[in-house]
Each structure stands twice: as structure tokens, then as C-alpha cells.
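dumping this here so i dont lose it
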């Protein structure tokens, strides 16, 4: 019991600034790796063939832009949510590391999507693998939020319960829709990818401002 009390006291002294700084570094590396996966096909460049070669790898541009937007959205939301998180503990640190692992994994399915999207024989596997990467990231984000908001464990205790439930529903629905996109991509890869793209575009909308309890009635 004495060890547990000391451990809790140590955890309570932690701040979130170091987590944000480390996370920013991972985001920066992951988003930079995306462009490194775009390569010009090996060929003898003659008059007109370079332009054709650049156009022929349009799936790589598409995958790059989509994943860049996805990672950028998570970076923006990461800073948004850390204004809500008031403290951290050991388990939350590990959950954040798991989330960052999923973020740093995204360049790999991005390369697969850009390279094999036009391969009809492998299109189902290509799209499914990419959507799985998006789903895994959404799950890791949701797990971190669930742990932090449970009984206001790590979040601002002044936050309105209605607002907390709103974020929980929003993050939970992301998993539902990405799961739906994953299942559909096993049958119709194009439709599954379209669902993932639309869901990504929806998250470009501004986040709802935090809502706090009315402390004047006390």
C-alpha cells in the first residue's frame, strides 16, 4: 500500500507538455516519410515520356495527400484534446505511445495504396490494408480518450458531462464508419475507400469548443 501511494504521488506530478513535445516529433517524422515513398518509375527519359511517367503515378499523389490530411487532422486534434487533458499517468503514457505507433505505421499502407491501387488483382487487399491502418489509428485514439475521460480521470473536471459524451460518441462513430469501410472494401474496394475519404474530409470541420459546467450555481 505504501508503494502504491508513492507511485500515485509520482504519477500525479507528471505533466502533459513532454508528451505533446514527443508526439509532435513523431507526427513530423511520419508526415515527412509520406513524400519519401513517391518514386518515379525507372525508365529511359525521352521527349514526352517524363510527363507521362509523372502522370502515371497519380495513385501515389492521391495516397500521399489523403494520408497527409489524415495525419494532419490527428495532429490538430492531438493539440485540441491535450487542452482538455489536465494530467497523465503511466497507463495513459503507454496508450499514447500505442497511438503514435499507429501514426508512424501509416506511411507503409500509404505506399502500398499508391503502388498497387491500379492493380485490379490486388486492389481489394490494397484498399483493405490501407483502411485497416486508418481503423487501427482511430481505435488507439478512442482507447486513450476512454481511459482519460472515465470518471474524469485525467480530463478537466469542470467539463460538462454532455460535452464528454459528445466527444465519446464522435470518436466511437469513427471506429464504426472505418469498420464499415473495411468490411465494404472486402467486397467493393472503391466504395470502401470512398467512405474513408469522406470520413476524413468531415474531420476537416472545426472541433467543437469545450463546454464547461455552470459553476455559478453553487
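and the seq i came up w/
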Amino acid at each position: 500500500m505504501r508503494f502504491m501511494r508513492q507511485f500515485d504521488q509520482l504519477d500525479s506530478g507528471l505533466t502533459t507538455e513532454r508528451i505533446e513535445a514527443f508526439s509532435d516529433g513523431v507526427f513530423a517524422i511520419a508526415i515527412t516519410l509520406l513524400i519519401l515513398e513517391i518514386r518515379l518509375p525507372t525508365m529511359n527519359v525521352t521527349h514526352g515520356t517524363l510527363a507521362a511517367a509523372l502522370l502515371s503515378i497519380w495513385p501515389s499523389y492521391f495516397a500521399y495527400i489523403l494520408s497527409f490530411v489524415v495525419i494532419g487532422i490527428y495532429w490538430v486534434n492531438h493539440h485540441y484534446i491535450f487542452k482538455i487533458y489536465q494530467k497523465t499517468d503511466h497507463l495513459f503514457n503507454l496508450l499514447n505511445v500505442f497511438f503514435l505507433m499507429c501514426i508512424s505505421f501509416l506511411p507503409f499502407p500509404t505506399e502500398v495504396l499508391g503502388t498497387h491501387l491500379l492493380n485490379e488483382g490486388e486492389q481489394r487487399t490494397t484498399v483493405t490494408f490501407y483502411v485497416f491502418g486508418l481503423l487501427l489509428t482511430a481505435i488507439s485514439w478512442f482507447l486513450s480518450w476512454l481511459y482519460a475521460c472515465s470518471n474524469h480521470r485525467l480530463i478537466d473536471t469542470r467539463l460538462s458531462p454532455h460535452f464528454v459524451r459528445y466527444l465519446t460518441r464522435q470518436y466511437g462513430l469513427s471506429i464504426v464508419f472505418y469498420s464499415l469501410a473495411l468490411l465494404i472494401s472486402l467486397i467493393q474496394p472503391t466504395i470502401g475507400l470512398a467512405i474513408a475519404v469522406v470520413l476524413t474530409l468531415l474531420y476537416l470541420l472545426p472541433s467543437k469548443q469545450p463546454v464547461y459546467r455552470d459553476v455559478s450555481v453553487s
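Confidence is low (pLDDT under 50) at residues 1-10.
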